[in-house]
Amino acid sequence: MTFPENFLWGAATASYQIEGAVNEGGRGPSIWDTFSHTPGKVLHGDTGDTACDHYHRLEEDLDLMAEIGLKAYRFSVAWPRIQPDGSGPANEKGLDFYRRLVDGLRQRSIEPMLTLYHWDLPQALQDRGGWTSRETAERFAEYAGVVYGALSGSVPFWITLNEPWVSAWLGHAYGIHAPGLKDPGAALSATHHLLLGHGLALERMRSMGNPGDDNQLGATLNLHPALPGRDRDADREAARRVDGQANRLYLDPLFRGEYPEDVFSHYRGLGADLSFVEDGDLDKISAPIDFLGVNYYFRHVVRDAPEESHSEVPFSDLRARPIVPHTGEKTAMGWPVDPEGLTEILVRVKEEYADVPLYVTENGRAVHDYVDPEGSVDDEERISYLDAHFRAARAAMERGADLRGYMVWSLLDNFEWAEGYSKRFGLVFVDYGTGRRVPKASSRWYSEVIGRNGLGSS
Ligand code: FCB
Hints:
The structure is a single chain. With 458 residues, this protein is α/β, with parallel strands linked by helices. It has one domain: Glycosidases (TIM Barrel, Alpha-Beta Barrel), CATH 3.20.20. Helix content is 39%, strand content 14%. The protein contains 15 helices and 13 strands. The chain has helices at residues 15-18, 31-36, 58-68, 79-82, 92-107, 123-126, 134-151, 164-172, 184-207, 233-256, 261-269, 281-285, 340-353, 380-398, 441-452, and strands at 8-12, 72-76, 111-117, 157-162, 216-222, 226-228, 291-295, 300-304, 320-322, 358-362, 403-409, 428-431, 436-439. The strands form 3 sheets. It has an 8-stranded parallel beta barrel with strand order 1-2-3-4-5-7-10-11, surrounded by 5 helices. A 3-stranded mixed β-sheet has the order 6-8-9, with helices on one face. It is globular, with a radius of gyration of 21 Å. The structure holds beta-D-fucopyranose.
């Protein structure tokens, strides 16, 4: 099974999850520093203070990427390295780190794919309301302009936001991520200001021209098809509510310039004040993007749950409960292995929204990896997971989805947010105590896939 010529095989990471060096190079604090240092928020009290120490091991990590044969590398810029308190002129030392990264990639013929916001908001902006405040959207556009000004000549792919659903809902409704709020109204306001920030950032970057000649600007959503748990109308309705919040709340404004009325009226019914949408906002949000990044992990299988009251469980405010079937393979995150959902969601974007170029900007699984007595990490589960998902992606392409590349999550084991260091997603194992990197069996398998631009027969 082969992929089109120039298919962009890569791997992804994010700043707070790998960099460490949180007090170096003039970096200011982010909401994830605050959150991870708040007792009880992250498993074992883990923080990103040191993480994979990527900030100091940049050359070694670049060499690992080259050894695997990656054609692209998706990384994120830590906003608080560039503007330590969220506004004002650039901190040149912060930009220098990313200049070195981008130069190192290009020297190795690896295409840089840059994410501007992967959740590490400067704490100073949170102190003024964070994403529930319109000002943050404006600050984000300024920050985007600063980074674009410095790197647009050498970075072809620009992603404004990573997974606004996660920022908004895990961060503001369910309290699981920074900043840890528990207010669905705040999550809707954060959703709107994140999307507005995306629109304003696009406008800003486009006004600066296209120094790379063919720069592509887009956004990344985490999309999860939602299916009814049982063959009942009540479960079908619950799946529709979950689809509304998880998928349509982002796809509709980006591609159609409107919010799904059923989602807004549900939250109006719960007393939320939705007056934050101003005239003209949706025009900015729906300005055409050059590509959509899709992060895919699993489908939501959903039951109606009328008795569920508002709590910290995702979708409880929709009176819906996601269930994970007892049967079937699960990852170390407890997530079901469900490659068909990837085909489904890529085809849906094309058929229901737009025939836009697509990149899988994240997909991968956590495995209980360890270095065995022979010194190797034999992550067969990850190999079969990726094999199945690459095939599912190919199936979507056969059905017309314009998929152009695939970034495996993740290059390195790293700080998995509220799960701390307990969950390993890397192609490369990291021994956190020493920083030692051990490429896993999956990284060698992935090299072969990239080398032959396809998969062997299964
Ligand atoms: C996604 C995040 C990424 C990583 C994976 C497992 O939601 O974007 O940072 O944590 O999940």
